[in-house]
Write the structure tokens for this entry.
Amino acid sequence: MTHTIDAVRAVLIEALELQQAPEELQAETELFGSLPELDSFGVVALVGALEDRFEITIDDDEFGAELFETVGSLTDFVAAKLATA
């Protein structure tokens, strides 16, 4: 899990061009609605970056506010996708 959250943090920072350091993005850090960078364009950029980095596919029906609620919820989702890949 530590490796996955570190990788998710790196993707978040790169895809959204965040100014935060990785350690500032904790599992409970809120994303959607809290980060101005995570708008509709940011979501598209983030999903593309996650798919590329983790070699996963995120289907349209998997999109939802709960997916992008926190760093932890996003990490859990990615970990679950990796477990079924």
